[in-house]
UniProtKB/TrEMBL annotation:
Residues annotated as domain BTB: 16-79
A Pfam family assignment: BTB
Xref: Gene3D superfamilies: Potassium Channel Kv1.1, Chain A
Organism encoding this protein: Zymoseptoria tritici (strain ST99CH_3D7)
PANTHER family with a match to the protein in the record: BTB DOMAIN-CONTAINING PROTEIN-RELATED (PTHR47843), BTB_POZ DOMAIN PROTEIN (PTHR47843:SF5)
CDD domains: BTB_POZ_ZBTB_KLHL-like (cd18186)
SUPFAM superfamilies associated with the record: POZ domain (SSF54695)
Protein name (record): BTB domain-containing protein
Length: 223
């Protein structure tokens, strides 16, 4: 048996214990929902989760970790993958799924689960980024991604590139993306730098771009 078969076999063994009481010695809770899990599985994925199982953490003594995030985190711990299910609350596939993958990347960063963070960013890159072009979708995704920038580096880069490539600011100088840039300085600077590098033959500066945004903001307030 080669290493690929061995790895696949171990993954199958992990997945067989998902939602199983057999050997379960810990509980993850999300609202009223509870999942019986295994300390060893948590420790394999994350030093933060390992500390929740052992030591002086309240969760260690109570044997319960309260997570107000997604069931998909628990699924990933056992299957090394997760799937997105279209939400009735957000029927727009690209906005809903894109937000979901960004949330998963942020959760992974919070608990130092590097594999999940890489997977979430990759899913965003493959399933969302190529299809998101309009101002109304780019703005909320970028706003969410820039809230925790260290968790969403690839998603942020792809969103900024899409804004530049699709001339979002030129077509919508008072639109949602421009408004989001005013609210988040790091987002504004990243877009400005991307714009500047995309047109090297001009003397366009970051200061000029920011002045243009300020002028558009002033015009919006006047009207």
């Amino acid at each position: 048996m080669d290493m690929t078969d061995t790895k696949a076999g171990l993954c199958d063994q992990f997945s067989s214990y998902h939602n199983s009481d057999l050997f379960s010695d810990f509980t993850i809770k999300c609202g009223e929902i509870k999942w019986k899990v295994h300390k060893f599985v948590l420790a394999v994925h994350s030093d933060v989760l390992k500390k929740c199982c052992h030591g002086t953490f309240k969760e260690s003594s109570e044997g319960v970790l309260d997570l107000s995030e997604h069931e998909s985190l628990v699924h990933y711990l056992y299957h090394f993958s997760y799937d997105y299910v279209l939400s009735n609350a957000n029927p727009d596939k690209h906005l809903g799924e894109g937000s979901f993958h960004i949330d998963m990347a942020i959760i992974a960063d919070k608990y130092f689960i590097t594999g999940l963070n890489a997977l979430a960013n990759a899913k965003f890159a493959d399933d969302i980024a190529p299809f998101v072009q309009d101002d109304e979708t780019l703005a909320p995704l970028a706003t969410k991604a820039f809230e925790v920038p260290q968790a969403t580096s690839l998603a942020r880069e792809l969103l900024v590139n899409s804004i530049v490539r699709n001339r979002t600011l030129g077509d919508n100088p008072r639109g949602s993306v421009a408004s989001a840039m005013r609210d988040n300085g790091e987002f504004a600077v990243d877009v400005a730098l991307a714009l500047q590098s995309s047109i090297p033959d001009t003397r366009l500066s970051i200061e000029q771009i920011m002045r243009s945004l300020e002028a558009a903001d002033h015009a919006r307030r006047v009207t």
